[in-house]
Amino acid sequence: MAKALRDHLSGGTRTSVGQAPAVIKQVARSPEILDEIYDLFLDDDPVVAMRSSYVAMKVAEADPESTWGYKKKVLRDLPRYVQQEVRWHIPQLLIHMNLTRTERRKAYSAVMEWSETDKSKIVAYYGLEAAAQFVEVDGSLESDFVPRLRKLNLRGAASVSSRCRKIAKRLDIEL
Hints:
By secondary structure, the chain is mainly α.
């Protein structure tokens, strides 16, 4: 099954979804294949890695609890997620996970570091959004978040600055 699933997720470019919608439907019928999907986040083929994380993210949007069984794996592998397209999706998965305070802080640290260091504006966009949601749940993160948000707002691209302003408004933060 793993080879067939991997084959469905391969081919094309890292920014195309390919047959991912068909795999998403397959997950709805056979949720156990999520084990394979999450394992593919670190695949050697960047297209497979991107699409597998995309599939997991889309499944999580419809069924947030689908992420709960994978939080230990995702948190353990955070340092290994270096591909920008995978980093687009990991923050969107993390916000659905039933994280403890310690796990949330670990996730927050990772997505903020990615937001500040990754060249991808999309990584910053989704990382900041996830971090803001973590701050909303755990107000003690705000003292760390605010100066970093201000700094990203000043140096960021237009899309990142726009996200910073929206987050600041939502959290009632003075930029």
